[in-house]
Amino acid sequence: MSMNQGERPPSPGTWVIVLGNEKGGSGKSTTAVHIALALAGVGLSVRVADLDYRQKTTTRYLENRAAWAARHGHELRVPPVEVIGEDGGEEALAAFFAEPQAQVLVVDTPGRDSSVARGAIARADTLITPINDSFIDFDLLGQVDSDSFKVTKPSFYAELVWKARQIRARTDGGTVDWVVLRNRLSPLEARNRKRVGAALDELSKRIGFRVVPGLSERVIYRELFPKGLTLLDMEHLPEATVSHVAARGELRELIGALSLPLADMVRDEAA
């Protein structure tokens, strides 16, 4: 990656949040949309970049939201979203960062390796990696001994992030706060859950990421997608249940755990 690809030109005061994970099915796009709308919901200006030009789940989610709001005559915040593909993607990504026109930039990367994804990570202030609570997902970050379940070495994605952090440090002296979300946690205190947690704690000390609780596996998230609604749109969910309220609490705890510079505004809104 050349130096200009590692440049991070957003204006002072713009915070860059990147969702990164090279494994699909981890809840990355759902998390990206909920974070973007949670921050927009407290009055922050937010722009979104969708680097998964094939599936475009984040884009479709926000398009569904705009269409549902127009159909039913509701005014809902819908942050502008830009799809950035591989062809000419590095230039398009640089242009996206060069004119942020927002306090927060949320970037959803594809579930595969790509040059634009690596470029986004090198520009991140906060990198969020959702993983499911299993050693299959953990293998993205590190390898473990089959008998002791102790971490033997970091895996390819951890090395990718390490290189991106080096680029960021050389470019502007900044740091990337890497946050790993344990999504879809089992409600049972299963032995496997404890082993995954212990391995994450061990690896986090070695390669420098924070572990925070993510979003539990709930049918709610899949049901909200066609309307583009989130758990923060309770007034538009007449069928809301106790499970919806509990899931919304998880989301607000997640936002607070990110420790963003603007998190106090989110906490005030949650209160």
The level 1 CATH classification is Alpha Beta
Order of helices and strands: HEHEHEHEHEHEEHEHEHHH
Strand content: 15-25%
- Give the helix tally: 11
Total domain modules: 1
Instruction: Return the structural class.
Output: alpha/beta
Biggest beta sheet attributes: 7 strands, parallel
Low-confidence parts = 1-11
Oligomer: single chain
- Helix coverage percent of residues? 40-55%
Mean pLDDT level: 86
- CATH architecture group name: 3-Layer(aba) Sandwich
CATH superfamily placement: P-loop containing nucleotide triphosphate hydrolases
Biggest sheet, spatial arrangement of strands = 3-2-4-1-5-8-9
What is the strand tally? Answer: 9
In whole angstroms, the N-to-C terminal distance is 44 Å
What overall geometry do the principal axes of the alpha carbons give? globular
CATH topology: Rossmann fold
What is the CA-based Rg, rounded?
Answer: 18 Å
